[in-house]
Amino acid sequence: MAGVLNNILELVGRIAPSRHSNPLLAYVRLRAGGGALTFHATNEQVDLEARLPWEGGPFDVLLPARLLVQQGHEAELLGLEGGKFRLRSGPVEAGLAYAEPEGFPAFPEVGEAFRLPVEALLEALGKVRYATAKEEYRAIFLGVQLEFSSRGFRAVASDGYRLALYDAPHPAAVEGRVVVPRKSVDELVYALSQAEGEVGVGLAPGMVGFAFRIQGAEVRLVTRLLEGEFPDYERVIPNPNIFAATVRVQASGLREALKRLAPLTDSGVRRVDVALKPGGLSVEVQGDHGEARAWLPASVEGEGTFAFNGKQLLEALPMEGEVRWGFAGGINPTVIWQEGEGYRAVVVPLRV
Amino acid sequence: MAGVLNNILELVGRIAPSRHSNPLLAYVRLRAGGGALTFHATNEQVDLEARLPWEGGPFDVLLPARLLVQQGHEAELLGLEGGKFRLRSGPVEAGLAYAEPEGFPAFPEVGEAFRLPVEALLEALGKVRYATAKEEYRAIFLGVQLEFSSRGFRAVASDGYRLALYDAPHPAAVEGRVVVPRKSVDELVYALSQAEGEVGVGLAPGMVGFAFRIQGAEVRLVTRLLEGEFPDYERVIPNPNIFAATVRVQASGLREALKRLAPLTDSGVRRVDVALKPGGLSVEVQGDHGEARAWLPASVEGEGTFAFNGKQLLEALPMEGEVRWGFAGGINPTVIWQEGEGYRAVVVPLRV
To answer: Is the dihedral of CA A99, A102, A105, A109 positive or negative?
Structure first.
């Protein structure tokens, strides 16, 4: 049990806030009985519940999250005894003071509408989340939009200047669009990265819920949503048929070059010049501290020189293998994608 | 050259301060010529110089430390060309803007008086540095005292409440006591951990210098000293002949138990009760959040119960294997040491 318990404690420890206007949220609720032990942590934005097979109880108590994570690591849970919650680790036996569960928020129940492969949802969220807004420009851009339909599902993120989306062919039994706050996406990605099999998805007013398994534990994560939906972004994505130039290049090579070049760009637009030439890309920067250039072998059709925000371009390359990059000319949006993959990024050249 | 260059850049990057009233210190001075390339960084407390075999130059320039570390990582240095300092890494060739060396502090020259094994000095500093004061109670306690004599050398640190010392049998050609600031000790330990062979030591007014080799590079580190010397600490170290009780216990077991117990102690004195019993130690804590106890098998001669600051006790155990622990009774100082090792720690029981 130690392995799965360590993982579950880490998950609930991430959710429970150490500082919050409601001090009860610094606790984890533990309920035992009927052959199971259930952990519940919440920060009012995200609720996480994990249910493990466990013979003991019945009890229903609150334990300080930070202390439970520390004392529970590599430990065996013994249950309530002598007015304390007892656990044992090697030569140490500890008894933690607990509180009564009154006042702790109830877990928000969200039914299950359909199931998706864990891997597909994880890949979709993991690939697009970088493109969310970092500042509140338009509040809706502070989250990732999930679009469910009978044709498949899509994750899309944008900050109003660039956009990333991921299409997966897995159909959903319901149609719907929800915008999940970036922080909740991060927690979901963290939890899903330890899960396997399928994830059950359910929608409720203002909430979306995910149910999955981590090493035999049943985990449910419910997050509040951002209100509203994305503006019509489809129209900014260029049609591949109109590309004036296309490039095939290794993602890792371009990424490594941009990482090396980035510190030499001037802050602000972080300008990087990309020149399409026969047989490769020339990538150049010039700044107050110096200059640098890289030559990356590539299959290039067409020509032209384009300026980009180097940080945005680097972030748009979260993959391995060969990427395709389509240029619609001038300062029209460019598209980065991979053959046979669901990921697409829209990166707009700088007006220089 | 990439391996040693990475290490040298990391060392100079640690020394050069990113914020300082003298903005020149954010630079590293590079001098080339005569078959060598020399790096010099300083924060006015510590000067670090590294000299590598290198065919190129001559030149003498300043480069921004942060940028040099980034661009130099895994790179090949090409030298000055076209008014820039040029380097190459994979497909990227960069040219960094440099400044003239006027105004950069000269490296403080300190001769070499004697040599010690790197390993012995590293072990001594690494083992005692935890015991330095964290706050300015008496300024002299903010450093580690090094004592050199024909009988050997000693490193000693104290915060006025606890003490750690390390005796090494390696004789020095000069007698002397210097107090090295904790921050300088940390930099020296970091650098020495990559060195091998011997370290040359030299003393000058207000300074001590160390010369050693890292992967063929000649490295010199000179640090300013704290003024003054430690008060007579010998008299607080109990004579082993008067111990009322002694314990032999595995350091790792006691350390792991204390780590697990520490979060349950109340802040402030962090009281941990240690009871000497036939066949073992009982270690207990009680606090607002709960209680815990551990039983550690040990060879125990004598008996008694003693209270300690759990954090101090944990820090006094920076070793592996069996430790000896001598108790002089009551709240008299206790001593922790290892048979055949130079390390000794003085930990004083709490008055309860």
So the answer is: positive
What does the alpha-carbon distance between residue B21 and residue B38 come to, in Å, rounded to a whole number? Answer: 25
Mutate to test the interface with A, among B289, B293, B296 (most CBs of A within 10 A): B289
Query: Closest to B289 (Cβ–Cβ): which among A97, A253, A256?
Result: A97
Sequential DSSP letters for A69-98: HHHHTT-EEEEEETTEEEEEETTEEEEE--
Residues of chain B with pLDDT under 70: 1-2
> What distance in Å separates residue A262's CA from the closest CA in chain B?
10
Pick from B91, B97, B290: CB nearest A84: B290
Query: Which of B67, B92, B314 has the highest number of chain A CBs within 10 A, making it the mutation to test binding with A?
Result: B92
Q: Which residues of B touch A (CB under 8 A)?
A: 64, 66-67, 70-71, 84-85, 89-97, 253, 256-257, 260-261, 263-264, 288-296
Whole-model pTM: value is 0.92
Cβ contact B113:B202 at 8 Å: yes
Q: At what angle do helices B2-15 and B182-192 cross, to 10 degrees?
A: 180
Classify residue B72 by burial, with Cβ atoms within 10 Å: 0-12, 13-18, 19+.
buried
Chain A residue with Cα closest to B91:
A294
Burial class (CB within 10 angstroms; exposed 0-12, middle 13-18, buried 19+) of A18:
exposed
List the single residue in A95, A261, A292 with the smallest CB-CB distance to B292.
A95
Q: What ipTM was predicted for this assembly?
A: 0.88
Minimal Cα–Cα distance from A309 to chain B, Å? 18
The whole-number pLDDT of residue A16 equals: 96
Amino acid at the residue B256: E
Confidence band for A1, pLDDT divided at 50, 70 and 90: low
B291/A67 Cβ within 8 A: no
Do you find a cis peptide bond into B58, omega within 30 degrees of 0?
yes
Residue B348: DSSP 8-state: P
The whole-angstrom separation of Cα A329 and Cα A335 is 11
Q: For A68-99, what is each residue's pLDDT tens digit?
A: 999 999 999 999 999 999 999 999 999 999 99
pLDDT tens for A131-189 read 999 887 789 999 999 999 999 999 999 999 999 999 999 999 889 999 999 999 999 99
CA atoms of A1 and B99, how far apart (whole Å): 61
Only one residue has tokens 């939890």, namely: A191
Residue A272 has pLDDT above 80, yes or no: yes
The pLDDT tens digits for A307-327 are: 999 999 999 999 999 999 999
CA distance B32 to B37: 4
pLDDT over 90 at A122, yes or no = yes
| Contact state of B95 with A288 under an 8 Å Cβ cutoff | no
Contacts of A11 (CB under 8 A, 6+ apart): A41, A48, A50, A190, A191, A194, A214, A219
Residues across chain B:
352
